[in-house]
């Protein structure tokens, strides 16, 4: 299975991004990873190019949500950019569609309840709000590409260690592989 795993560079005034650290470790283990800039235009261009050249069977994207208590399995992505936070280029986008003429929302084809149950030792929560910043943009583009996808928000480092994130990612990849190798 061609699995594409994405994460982000640090953003705003966070000195690091756990999603970047996680993807780099998974790359060292042989997974195909892509670290995206926290730039509206940059993440779209990088992601689109990678999808077209790699032809993934599944896209697993990670992002960082400082305010989350638990690992968040994102159910939906919305065709909307609307954040008061600037991207790395200082650009603020309010009330703008990601894809003109695209559906209002797209949803992962995975059963998040099944994943939540099988990975219950990590206490993942199901979320329907990926924000309206670059994480939502990437997730919407993942799903709009037609490739089955899932976006995971990682909580603050005080809530979960990098080792726990790595272990969670390994288990999640096994679950995704199981589902998509039977298709």
Which helices and strands occur, and which strands form pairs?
Layout (H helix, E strand, L loop, with lengths): L2 E6 L9 H11 L3 E5 L3 H15 L3 E7 L7 E3 L1 E3 L26 E3 L4 H7 L6 E3 L6 H11 L4 E6 L7 H20 L2
Parallel strand pairs: 1-2, 1-3, 3-8, 4-7
Antiparallel strand pairs: 4-8, 5-6
Report on the structure:
- The chain has about 180 residues and is of the alpha/beta class.
- It has one domain: Peptidase C15, pyroglutamyl peptidase I-like (Aminopeptidase, 3-Layer(aba) Sandwich).
- The protein is about 35% helix and about 20% strand.
- It has five helices and eight strands; from the N terminus they run E-H-E-H-E-E-E-E-H-E-H-E-H.
- The protein has helices at about 20-30, 40-55, 110-120, 135-145, 160-180; strands spanning about 5-10, 30-35, 60-65, 70-75, 75-80, 105, 125, 150-155.
- The protein is globular, with a radius of gyration of 15 Å.
- It starts with a strand and ends with a helix.
- The mean pLDDT is about 95.
Could you give a quick summary of the protein structure above?
By secondary structure, this protein is of the alpha/beta class. Helix content is 35%, strand content 20%.
